[in-house]
Design a protein that fits this description.
Layout: H1 7-29, H2 32-53, H3 59-77, H4 79-89, H5 104-119, E1 124-128, H6 135-138, E2 142-147, H7 150-156, E3 167-171, E4 174-180, H8 196-207, E5 211-215, E6 222-226, E7 229-232, H9 236-246
Parallel strand pairs: 1-3
Antiparallel strand pairs: 1-5, 2-4, 3-4, 5-6, 6-7
Helix pairs in contact: 1-4, 2-3, 5-7, 5-9
Length: about 250
């Protein structure tokens, strides 16, 4: 007995506290902006505590008001970052070991479509799923469940069509959905000249083990995003090589 509490209850209680602390630390460390905001909040809270302790007539009520409203403001401003951090924390829980990658025909269709879209400077975002399921993004997109083909991929990304914006998610030999939207990467080392399509591709590669092919609408250049890394690839053979390595 510890303070008249059964030992088993104390151990369970201690374990729950440890899990909560571990989750909170992992959650904050998964996003630098989140960590920065949390540090700023702690600093303001300490200032408020000091101001209240010494009863400063002006600073104390102001900081008290700020502390009361700061959590709400943080949730509103940092909503995308909070969502992204949660996705990174639970990344391992969405792993599927029974994944089946696409056939040679599917690989060829993806490469052919990417190179055609590049030659026409048509923007595109094609994400190939691996172990980490992308169902949470597919649920908010337009369901396709169609066979992967060059013609369908080109038609999806044709400008001024309903499915032009957003990403296509490919699972095995099927186009799972179109018009999917991902959380944008906040990587500070990322090329500032690239737009939201590239940041979306990089963002999904940071929180899942997928590979995303990005075609720039401005330049027609082709890039791939995998494991939080962006590589520019304008050579058909090189693109096929990376896809073969990923989809083996």
């Amino acid at each position: 007995m510890i303070y008249n509490i059964p030992i088993w209850k104390f151990i369970v209680d201690l374990y729950i506290v440890w899990v909560l602390v571990f989750f909170l630390v992992k959650f904050l460390l998964s996003n630098k902006r989140m960590l920065s905001i949390a540090t700023s909040f702690l600093f303001v809270y300490l200032l408020s505590y000091v101001a209240n302790l010494f009863e400063f007539p002006i600073t104390s009520p102001i900081l008290t008001y700020v502390v009361e409203w700061m959590p709400i403001l943080i949730i509103i401003i940092m909503a995308p970052d909070i969502r992204r951090s949660l996705e990174m924390v639970w990344k391992a829980d969405t792993r599927n070991e029974l994944v089946v990658m696409g056939s040679e025909k599917t690989k060829q269709a993806i490469v052919d479509a990417a190179m055609y879209l590049s030659s026409q400077q048509i923007g595109a975002l094609m994400t190939i799923e691996k172990h980490n399921t992308l169902d949470q993004y597919a649920e908010r997109a337009i369901t396709m469940n169609s066979e992967v083909s060059k013609e369908i991929l080109i038609n999806i990304f044709t400008p001024n069509t309903p499915l032009h914006d957003g990403a296509v998610i490919i699972r095995g030999d099927s186009i799972l959905c179109a018009g999917a939207y991902f959380v944008l990467s906040d990587n500070q080392n990322f090329d500032k000249t690239m737009g939201s399509r590239h940041r979306a591709g990089l963002g999904i590669s940071e929180i899942t083990d997928s590979l995303t092919i990005i075609v720039s609408e401005e330049t027609g250049s082709v890039s791939i995003a995998v494991e939080g890394i962006m590589l520019k690839i304008n050579d058909r053979d090189k693109l096929m090589e990376y896809i073969n390595m990923f989809m083996k």
